[in-house]
Amino acid sequence: MKPEDLQKLVTLAMPYGKYKGQLIADLPGQYLNWFAREGFPAGEIGRLLALMQEIDHNGLSELLVPIRKSMMLKR
Question: What is the reported pLDDT for 10?
Answer without folding.
Answer: 96
